[in-house]
Design goal:
It is a single chain. This protein is an all-alpha fold and about 170 residues long. It is built from nine helices and no strands. It folds into two domains: about 1-30; about 35-170, Tetratricopeptide repeat domain (Serine Threonine Protein Phosphatase 5, Tetratricopeptide repeat, Alpha Horseshoe). Helix content is about 70%, strand content about 0%. The chain is elongated and about 90 Å long. The protein starts with a helix and ends with a helix.
Length: about 170
């Protein structure tokens, strides 16, 4: 009798452990990684174009960039806006940095508008704006718009972060 009870107990424990594992895997697969964790995984400022220009003086732009690099995004945003207002032909990349500052401050709508201005500019790096716009939607948990932008990026393998866009799109689907 005792060996039968031990077998039942072992079987009960084995079934319970299996059930916990299957449930955990199922919940993870159904929910997948959160948009916040994906944003943190893919967000990087290392790909931002430089705002440094030779023989051009703009102390406001330099100050804004220093504030941005120092993590003071509120002050950076004010200075980027000031730079745009006081400069007849502001550098398009300032819109990208402005959008990044807004994104860091969770101003998703403002960030998307700034990224759109950058995307529609004449900058050689303008398509980087698509990537950061997708990340803005991702951080805002607007998965539908994030997918749409990522799909746009994956239409041309020469687009900035094409491979990362494919990976991220796969994780979102």
């Amino acid at each position: 009798m005792e060996s039968q009870n031990e077998k039942r107990r072992f079987l009960l424990v084995a079934v319970s452990v299996t059930l916990v594992i299957v449930t955990s895997v199922g919940v993870y697969l159904m929910n997948g990684p959160s948009s916040g964790s994906l944003y943190n995984e893919y967000y990087s400022t290392s790909d931002l174009p430089s705002l440094v220009q030779r023989n051009v003086e703009s102390t406001t732009l330099e100050e804004a960039t220093l504030e941005f690099e120092g993590g003071d995004f509120g002050d950076a945003l004010v200075l980027y806006e000031k730079y745009r207002m006081e400069t007849p032909e502001p550098r398009p990349e300032a819109y990208l940095y402005e959008g990044m500052s807004q994104l860091e401050l969770d101003d998703f709508e403002g960030a998307v508008k700034s990224f759109d201005r950058f995307i529609n500019s004449n900058s050689v790096d303008r398509l980087k704006g698509l990537w950061f716009k997708a990340l803005a939607y991702l951080k805002a948990e607007d998965i539908q718009n994030a997918r749409a932008i990522l799909s746009n990026i994956t239409e041309d393998s020469s687009n900035f972060n094409y491979q990362k866009a494919r990976e991220l799109l796969e994780k979102l689907n």
